[in-house]
Every structure is written in structure tokens, then in C-alpha cells.
Amino acid sequence: MRNLIEFLTKNNHWFLFVALEVLSLIMLFQFNNYQGSVWFSSANAFTGKVYELSSMIDSYFNLSKVNQDLTQRNLYLERKVKLLSDKLARRTGDSKKMNDMEVFKDFRLIPAKVIDNSVSKTDNFITLDKGSADGVRADMGVACGNGIVGIVFMTTEHYSVVISVLNTHTNISCSIQGRDYFGYLRWSGGRSDIAYVDDIPRHAHFKNHEKVVTSGYSSVFPPGVMVGEITKVLNSQDGLSYRLQVKLSTNFSRLRDVCIIDDATAAERLSVMREALDSIKQKN
Predict the structure, then answer these.
(1) E-strand spans in the chain?
(2) 143 with 165: CB under 8 angstroms?
(3) Which sign, positive or negative, has the C-alpha torsion 62, 159, 261, 223?
(4) How far is the CA of 204 from the CAs of 167, 186, 207, in angstroms?
(5) How far from 242 is each of 1, 108, 141, 228, 245, CA to CA, in Å?
(6) Is residue 244 within 8 Å of 193, Cβ to Cβ?
């Protein structure tokens, strides 16, 4: 305590100087409009920069959540456009407004992050950070904001493995948007942005750059989820159908946020199909 008193006594002139400087600055800026406005502007500029930096940092750490929301919203909108197009095509004249819950009443989207992914192998797989504890099951479809990603192959409690579209064992039912022709999407290896739709009938009418979407003829994907666009029309090996080269809308090399599509009716449909197959086998 004595040392502190000695220090204050020894340097009292410096403390007095600082106090008088602070008092003079307060009086200067408080009683002089010009100096006060300069100080106010400078302080605002500094505070604004601090707030701007804080906002940038906050936005950066919230990008993950924003990406999840955008991915989910894109899937909602794609599905909504599909249903509205079908309604218009049927010319029902029903103008009732549909909201997102009505459009997706049979579907639940489970947001997930890609924690492991490959694009250069013959058979590529993707690992997600959601598993059975989050309601994920095998045979669920996976999509991102740009298009389809793959099909859930197996799950653990907190993780799931997805068979990527970039896998030679994928076989996804697709159709040409706005038309009734459908075929099956397959990947033949090579480029990660190119796949093929086989079994398009010879009488089909279409042209390059038309969109390819999921057909909804399976229990994995609802109709209308984007797949890509037609870039080339080829003949099948037997010459009885067309083979479409499709540029995939999903960028698999930069895949991060996805949604797992939980179809509440899928389990029932799969059960009926299995019972039908078992019945046929027993008869044979």
C-alpha cells in the first residue's frame, strides 16, 4: 500500500496532466459544434467498421445454416413446380393455393452434411452425418439444392452411407420434364458431371437441353427432382431405344449440404411390392 502511495505521489503531475487533457477534450467537443461533429463522425465510422467486421464474422459462422435452409427450400420449390405443372396439364381449373406443407405432406426432409465423398472411383459412396437416430433408413433418396445425389445404402446410429449417382450400380427412374417419356439413369464411369438415361422409346419427341427430372415411379424420389439436361442423343446398343447423355445438375466435387427425403408412404409401398414378389415366387 505504501508503495502505491509513493508511486501516485511521485507521478501525480502526470495524472493531473491526463485528467486536464480529458477535461479539455470533453469541453472542446461538447461546447464547439464543428469539433463535436468531427468527433461524432469519426466515432461513428470506427463503430461502423467494428459492427461490419462483427457482422461478417457472424455471417461466416452462420453460412452452414444458410446453406441447409437454401438446400431445403430449393427442394420444396422444385416439388411445388412439379405439382403445379401437373395440375395445369390436367386442366382441372382448381385455383386453390398450395403451401409447402400441402405439397410435401407425404415427405420429410432431413438436412445432413457430407463428411466423406469420392468422385474418381468406379463405384463412389458418400458418408453423411445423420443416421438411424435421426430417422434415416436404407433406400431413402438424397438430394441437394441443385439435384439428386444418391440413395441411402446403410446406416448406423449417427451416420449413413449413400450410393452416389456416380456409382455403376445406380439405376434411378427419370423422365423428360413436361413429357411422359421415362428411362433409367445410369453412370458409366469417367466424368463426374455426365451420366446416361437409357430405355427412352424410339417414338419419343424431345431435343437437346431439355431438363431431365425424377419420374416418381419408384419409392426413392418424388417426381420432379432435378437430374440434369440433355446434351446428346445416342442410340442404344440394340437400336430399339434412345440413350440420352445428360449433364448432371449436381456438382459432386463440391457437395456439402444435402437433404435426405423421407417418404412416409415408401415403407408401405415397398412392403406391398415384396409381398407381391413373394407371392409370385411361391406360385412358381
Answers:
(1) 107-117, 123-128, 141-143, 148-155, 160-167, 172-176, 182-186, 194-201, 211-214, 226-235, 241-248, 257-263
(2) no
(3) positive
(4) 27, 19, 10
(5) 95, 35, 26, 17, 10
(6) no
pTM of the complete model: 0.63
Residues whose CB is less than 8 angstroms from the CB of residue 224 and which lie 6 or more positions away in sequence, other chains included = 78, 79, 81, 82, 83, 85, 177, 213, 214, 216
Residue 259 Cα to chain centre, angstroms: 6
**DSSP letter at 162?**
E
- Compute how many other C-beta atoms are within 10 angstroms of the C-beta atom of residue 78: 20
Q: What is the pLDDT of residues 187-234, one digit of tens each?
A: 998 899 999 999 888 888 888 899 999 988 877 888 888 999 999 988
Residues in Cβ contact with 74 at an 8 Å cutoff, skipping those fewer than 6 apart: 144, 145, 146
Task: Enter the C-alpha cell of residue 6.
Answer: 509513493
Q: What is the pLDDT of residues 105-163, one digit of tens each?
A: 567 889 888 888 889 888 999 999 899 999 999 989 999 888 899 999 999 988 999 99
* Calpha distance 127→113 (Å, rounded): 9
- Which among 186, 181, 183 has a CA at the least distance from the CA of 166? 186
**Strands annotated E in 129-225:** 141-143, 148-155, 160-167, 172-176, 182-186, 194-201, 211-214
Burial class (CB within 10 angstroms; exposed 0-12, middle 13-18, buried 19+) of 150: buried
For residue 48, give the C-alpha cell.
Answer: 461502423
Of 64, 71, 52, 164, give the one whose Cα is nearest residue 110.
71
| Angstrom distances, CA of residue 152 to CA of 66, 137, 194 | 24, 7, 21
Q: Which residue has the cell 439413369?
A: 185
11 grid coordinates: 507521478
Residues facing 164 on adjacent strands: 150
Distance CA 143, CA 71 (A): 9
* Closest by CA position to 184, among listed 174, 194, 193: 174
